[in-house]
């Protein structure tokens, strides 16, 4: 597993790593060989990095009352759509159409990052992140994760912190 600190990050990178570099925050990039046959992008990332699935968070795009909304939840759990709707003051949430999610964020499924999206979407980070020093989220492509503090992620995405995951 290759690791790069922000000081070693190559120019360019993904929109997520470019955004992190521009913000001047501390982060670490973790690269691994993505296996297209693996049944879960998030679990694959946790296994490849040797990190607890409670510290690796997946980025999911949902439709809350007609507005695309990003939920960032641990790969060890699943998204509670009702809790997500409540967290953003909505009534009903469903998973977004994958093609629409890709087109709106600028990322492909399995590589959607909460950072550096083409169109900045309302974001909710599961409250379980607040008890961790660092979490890992997609860096913008399959096989690439970024490790950073939950506070940095919350600040850069203007995320709401709420209990939106279930075990």
Structure description:
With 167 residues, the chain is of the alpha+beta class. It is 25% helix and 31% strand. It has five helices and eleven strands. The protein has helices at 15-23, 41-49, 81-87, 98-105, 150-157; strands spanning 2-5, 28-31, 57-64, 67-74, 78-79, 93-95, 122-126, 135-141, 144-148, 160-162, 165-166. The strands form three sheets. It has a five-stranded mixed beta sheet with strand order 6-3-4-7-10. The chain has a four-stranded antiparallel beta sheet with strand order 1-2-9-8. A two-stranded antiparallel ribbon has the order 5-11. A hairpin with a 2-residue loop joins strand 3 and strand 4. The radius of gyration is 15 Å and the shape is globular. It starts with a strand and ends with a strand. Mean pLDDT is 91; it is low at 1-11.
């Amino acid at each position: 597993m290759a690791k790069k600190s922000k000081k070693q990050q190559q120019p360019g990178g993904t929109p997520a790593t470019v955004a992190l570099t521009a913000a001047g925050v501390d982060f670490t990039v973790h690269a691994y060989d993505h296996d297209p046959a693996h049944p879960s992008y998030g679990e694959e990332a946790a296994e490849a990095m040797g990190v607890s699935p409670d510290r690796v968070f997946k980025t999911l795009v949902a439709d809350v009352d007609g507005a695309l909304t990003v939920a960032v939840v641990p790969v060890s759990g699943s998204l509670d759509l009702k809790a997500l709707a409540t967290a953003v003051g909505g009534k009903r949430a469903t998973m977004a159409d994958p093609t629409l999610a890709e087109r709106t964020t600028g990322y492909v499924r399995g590589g959607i990052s909460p950072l550096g999206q083409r169109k900045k979407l309302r974001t909710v980070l599961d409250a379980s992140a607040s008890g961790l020093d660092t979490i890992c989220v997609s860096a913008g492509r399959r096989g690439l994760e970024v490790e950073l503090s939950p506070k940095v992620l919350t600040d850069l995405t203007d995320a709401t912190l709420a209990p939106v995951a279930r075990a």
